[in-house]
Protein backbone atom coordinates (compact mmCIF):
# COMPACT_ATOMS: atom_id res chain seq x y z
CA UNK A 1 0.00 0.00 0.00
CA UNK A 2 1.33 3.45 -0.93
CA UNK A 3 2.51 5.72 1.87
CA UNK A 4 0.29 8.76 2.42
CA UNK A 5 2.37 11.92 2.78
CA UNK A 6 0.79 14.67 4.90
CA UNK A 7 0.37 17.88 2.92
CA UNK A 8 1.12 21.19 4.57
CA UNK A 9 1.15 24.73 3.10
CA UNK A 10 3.42 25.18 0.10
CA UNK A 11 6.45 27.29 1.01
CA UNK A 12 9.05 29.08 -1.09
CA UNK A 13 11.80 30.09 1.34
CA UNK A 14 13.22 28.96 4.68
CA UNK A 15 14.72 30.73 7.70
CA UNK A 16 16.71 28.86 10.33
CA UNK A 17 17.38 29.55 13.97
CA UNK A 18 20.92 28.62 15.01
CA UNK A 19 21.42 27.43 18.59
CA UNK A 20 19.93 24.06 19.39
CA UNK A 21 18.52 23.77 15.86
CA UNK A 22 21.54 23.73 13.56
CA UNK A 23 24.33 23.16 16.09
CA UNK A 24 24.48 21.44 19.49
CA UNK A 25 25.22 24.67 21.31
CA UNK A 26 22.42 24.35 23.85
CA UNK A 27 24.33 21.44 25.39
CA UNK A 28 27.33 23.72 25.84
CA UNK A 29 25.14 26.43 27.39
CA UNK A 30 23.85 23.86 29.88
CA UNK A 31 27.25 22.39 30.70
CA UNK A 32 28.87 25.78 31.20
CA UNK A 33 26.05 27.05 33.40
CA UNK A 34 25.33 23.96 35.51
CA UNK A 35 28.17 21.48 35.27
CA UNK A 36 31.18 23.77 35.23
CA UNK A 37 32.28 26.45 37.68
CA UNK A 38 29.28 28.78 37.70
CA UNK A 39 26.16 27.38 39.37
CA UNK A 40 27.90 24.19 40.47
CA UNK A 41 30.25 26.02 42.81
CA UNK A 42 27.22 27.53 44.55
CA UNK A 43 25.68 24.10 45.02
CA UNK A 44 22.67 24.78 42.78
CA UNK A 45 21.62 23.44 39.39
CA UNK A 46 19.66 24.63 36.36
CA UNK A 47 16.74 22.30 35.65
CA UNK A 48 15.02 21.96 32.28
CA UNK A 49 12.02 23.82 33.66
CA UNK A 50 14.32 26.80 34.16
CA UNK A 51 16.22 26.31 30.91
CA UNK A 52 12.99 26.25 28.88
CA UNK A 53 12.40 29.84 29.96
CA UNK A 54 15.87 30.94 28.83
CA UNK A 55 15.87 29.56 25.31
CA UNK A 56 15.50 32.13 22.57
CA UNK A 57 15.76 35.13 24.90
CA UNK A 58 18.40 37.89 24.52
CA UNK A 59 21.38 37.04 26.73
CA UNK A 60 20.87 39.65 29.47
CA UNK A 61 17.17 38.85 29.71
CA UNK A 62 18.00 35.14 29.85
CA UNK A 63 20.65 35.69 32.54
CA UNK A 64 18.24 37.73 34.65
CA UNK A 65 15.62 35.00 34.30
CA UNK A 66 18.13 32.33 35.34
CA UNK A 67 19.44 34.17 38.39
CA UNK A 68 15.92 35.02 39.55
CA UNK A 69 15.56 31.36 40.56
CA UNK A 70 18.55 31.65 42.92
CA UNK A 71 18.05 34.90 44.86
CA UNK A 72 20.62 33.94 47.48
CA UNK A 73 23.52 33.82 44.99
CA UNK A 74 26.11 36.59 45.32
CA UNK A 75 26.42 36.71 41.54
CA UNK A 76 25.44 39.68 39.41
CA UNK A 77 24.25 39.42 35.81
CA UNK A 78 27.50 41.04 34.64
CA UNK A 79 29.66 38.60 36.62
CA UNK A 80 27.69 35.62 35.39
CA UNK A 81 27.89 36.67 31.73
CA UNK A 82 31.61 37.39 31.94
CA UNK A 83 32.42 33.98 33.43
CA UNK A 84 30.04 32.21 31.07
CA UNK A 85 31.60 33.85 28.00
CA UNK A 86 35.14 32.77 28.94
CA UNK A 87 34.07 29.13 29.29
CA UNK A 88 31.84 29.10 26.21
CA UNK A 89 34.29 30.83 23.92
CA UNK A 90 36.78 28.04 24.47
CA UNK A 91 34.20 25.46 23.34
CA UNK A 92 32.43 27.14 20.40
CA UNK A 93 35.02 26.12 17.76
CA UNK A 94 34.24 22.46 18.54
CA UNK A 95 30.43 22.53 18.60
CA UNK A 96 29.04 19.81 16.30
CA UNK A 97 26.13 20.09 13.85
CA UNK A 98 22.83 18.48 14.83
CA UNK A 99 21.45 15.49 12.90
CA UNK A 100 19.82 16.27 9.57
CA UNK A 101 20.99 19.86 9.18
CA UNK A 102 23.78 19.24 6.66
CA UNK A 103 21.51 17.22 4.40
CA UNK A 104 18.67 19.76 4.59
CA UNK A 105 20.77 22.88 3.95
CA UNK A 106 22.64 21.32 1.05
CA UNK A 107 19.39 20.02 -0.43
CA UNK A 108 17.64 23.40 -0.30
CA UNK A 109 20.68 25.12 -1.79
CA UNK A 110 20.92 22.55 -4.57
CA UNK A 111 17.31 23.26 -5.56
CA UNK A 112 17.70 27.05 -5.33
CA UNK A 113 15.32 27.46 -2.37
CA UNK A 114 16.20 30.82 -0.73
CA UNK A 115 17.56 30.31 2.79
CA UNK A 116 18.67 32.60 5.62
CA UNK A 117 19.52 32.46 9.32
CA UNK A 118 17.98 34.57 12.07
CA UNK A 119 19.60 34.09 15.48
CA UNK A 120 19.63 35.92 18.77
CA UNK A 121 23.33 35.22 19.20
CA UNK A 122 25.83 38.05 18.86
CA UNK A 123 27.70 38.37 15.57
CA UNK A 124 31.09 37.64 17.16
CA UNK A 125 29.70 34.49 18.78
CA UNK A 126 28.06 33.43 15.51
CA UNK A 127 31.45 33.53 13.82
CA UNK A 128 33.05 31.44 16.59
CA UNK A 129 30.25 28.88 16.49
CA UNK A 130 30.14 28.42 12.72
CA UNK A 131 33.55 29.03 11.15
CA UNK A 132 34.61 25.38 11.50
CA UNK A 133 31.41 24.29 9.72
CA UNK A 134 31.65 26.74 6.83
CA UNK A 135 32.15 24.10 4.14
CA UNK A 136 29.43 21.72 5.30
CA UNK A 137 26.71 24.20 6.27
CA UNK A 138 27.23 27.90 6.70
CA UNK A 139 28.95 28.73 3.45
CA UNK A 140 25.67 27.96 1.69
CA UNK A 141 24.06 30.99 3.37
CA UNK A 142 26.61 33.54 2.21
CA UNK A 143 25.87 36.81 4.03
CA UNK A 144 22.18 36.01 4.55
CA UNK A 145 22.46 35.98 8.34
CA UNK A 146 20.77 38.22 10.92
CA UNK A 147 22.39 38.23 14.39
CA UNK A 148 20.95 39.47 17.66
CA UNK A 149 23.18 42.55 17.92
CA UNK A 150 22.91 43.70 14.28
CA UNK A 151 22.06 47.40 13.90
CA UNK A 152 19.36 46.55 11.38
CA UNK A 153 17.31 45.05 14.21
CA UNK A 154 17.53 48.32 16.13
CA UNK A 155 16.15 50.12 13.09
CA UNK A 156 13.39 47.53 12.82
CA UNK A 157 12.49 47.99 16.49
CA UNK A 158 12.30 51.77 16.35
CA UNK A 159 15.55 52.35 18.21
CA UNK A 160 15.74 49.17 20.27
CA UNK A 161 16.38 45.51 19.55
CA UNK A 162 13.34 43.32 20.18
CA UNK A 163 14.35 39.73 20.76
CA UNK A 164 12.11 36.70 20.42
CA UNK A 165 9.15 36.27 20.75
CA UNK A 166 8.94 39.50 18.75
CA UNK A 167 8.83 38.77 14.99
CA UNK A 168 11.54 41.30 14.05
CA UNK A 169 14.40 38.89 13.36
CA UNK A 170 12.48 36.66 10.97
CA UNK A 171 10.89 39.60 9.16
CA UNK A 172 14.28 41.29 8.69
CA UNK A 173 15.77 38.03 7.41
CA UNK A 174 12.96 37.58 4.90
CA UNK A 175 12.88 41.19 3.73
CA UNK A 176 16.52 42.30 3.85
CA UNK A 177 18.36 39.01 3.30
CA UNK A 178 15.98 37.29 0.87
CA UNK A 179 14.22 40.25 -0.75
CA UNK A 180 10.70 39.12 0.15
CA UNK A 181 7.90 41.70 0.35
CA UNK A 182 6.90 40.95 3.95
CA UNK A 183 6.71 44.50 5.32
CA UNK A 184 7.27 45.30 9.00
CA UNK A 185 5.51 44.47 12.24
CA UNK A 186 3.13 41.73 13.32
CA UNK A 187 -0.41 40.97 12.29
CA UNK A 188 -2.63 43.64 10.82
CA UNK A 189 0.25 46.04 10.21
CA UNK A 190 0.99 44.10 7.00
CA UNK A 191 -0.95 44.45 3.76
CA UNK A 192 -2.80 41.43 2.33
CA UNK A 193 0.02 41.01 -0.22
CA UNK A 194 2.65 41.11 2.54
CA UNK A 195 0.74 38.59 4.66
CA UNK A 196 0.54 36.28 1.65
CA UNK A 197 4.31 36.59 1.18
CA UNK A 198 4.92 35.85 4.86
CA UNK A 199 2.83 32.69 4.56
CA UNK A 200 5.29 31.39 1.95
CA UNK A 201 8.06 31.28 4.57
CA UNK A 202 9.09 28.27 6.66
CA UNK A 203 10.85 28.85 9.99
CA UNK A 204 12.86 26.12 11.72
CA UNK A 205 13.08 26.58 15.50
CA UNK A 206 13.93 24.64 18.64
CA UNK A 207 12.78 27.15 21.31
CA UNK A 208 9.24 28.11 22.26
CA UNK A 209 9.92 31.89 22.04
CA UNK A 210 11.23 31.20 18.54
CA UNK A 211 8.01 29.39 17.64
CA UNK A 212 6.09 32.44 18.86
CA UNK A 213 8.36 34.73 16.86
CA UNK A 214 7.87 32.80 13.64
CA UNK A 215 4.10 32.65 14.04
CA UNK A 216 3.91 36.36 14.90
CA UNK A 217 5.85 36.99 11.71
CA UNK A 218 3.01 35.24 9.87
CA UNK A 219 5.18 32.31 8.77
CA UNK A 220 4.91 28.54 9.06
CA UNK A 221 6.98 27.01 11.86
CA UNK A 222 8.60 23.60 12.24
CA UNK A 223 9.50 23.02 15.89
CA UNK A 224 12.41 20.66 16.63
CA UNK A 225 12.66 20.68 20.44
CA UNK A 226 15.23 18.97 22.60
CA UNK A 227 13.63 15.81 24.06
CA UNK A 228 13.87 17.34 27.54
CA UNK A 229 11.92 20.38 26.36
CA UNK A 230 9.41 18.29 24.42
CA UNK A 231 8.61 16.32 27.59
CA UNK A 232 7.40 19.49 29.35
CA UNK A 233 3.81 20.72 28.90
CA UNK A 234 3.50 23.23 26.08
CA UNK A 235 2.35 26.57 27.55
CA UNK A 236 -1.32 27.37 27.17
CA UNK A 237 -2.65 30.32 25.20
CA UNK A 238 0.44 30.99 23.08
CA UNK A 239 1.26 30.40 19.44
CA UNK A 240 1.85 26.77 18.48
CA UNK A 241 4.02 25.30 15.71
CA UNK A 242 2.60 23.96 12.47
CA UNK A 243 4.69 20.82 12.74
CA UNK A 244 6.74 19.22 15.53
CA UNK A 245 9.63 16.88 14.75
CA UNK A 246 11.99 14.88 16.96
CA UNK A 247 14.90 15.78 14.66
CA UNK A 248 15.58 17.48 11.34
CA UNK A 249 16.26 13.97 10.06
CA UNK A 250 12.48 13.49 10.16
CA UNK A 251 11.76 16.51 7.93
CA UNK A 252 9.97 15.56 4.68
CA UNK A 253 10.44 18.41 2.16
CA UNK A 254 7.59 17.41 -0.14
CA UNK A 255 5.07 17.84 2.70
CA UNK A 256 5.74 21.56 2.30
CA UNK A 257 5.75 21.59 -1.50
CA UNK A 258 9.54 21.47 -1.66
CA UNK A 259 11.55 19.13 -3.87
CA UNK A 260 11.95 15.68 -2.30
CA UNK A 261 15.34 14.50 -1.20
CA UNK A 262 17.43 12.91 -3.92
CA UNK A 263 18.40 9.27 -3.51
CA UNK A 264 22.03 10.31 -3.22
CA UNK A 265 21.39 13.12 -0.69
CA UNK A 266 23.67 13.25 2.31
CA UNK A 267 22.40 11.57 5.47
From TrEMBL:
SUPFAM superfamilies linked: HAD-like
- Species: Gloeophyllum trabeum (strain ATCC 11539 / FP-39264 / Madison 617)
What's one Pfam family the UniProt record gives for this protein? Hydrolase
InterPro entries associated with the record: HAD-like_sf, HAD_sf, PGP-like_dom2
Entries under Gene3D superfamilies matching the protein? HAD superfamily/HAD-like (3.40.50.1000), Putative phosphatase, domain 2 (1.10.150.240)
Q: Name one GO molecular function term.
A: phosphatase activity
What name is this protein filed under?
A: HAD-like protein
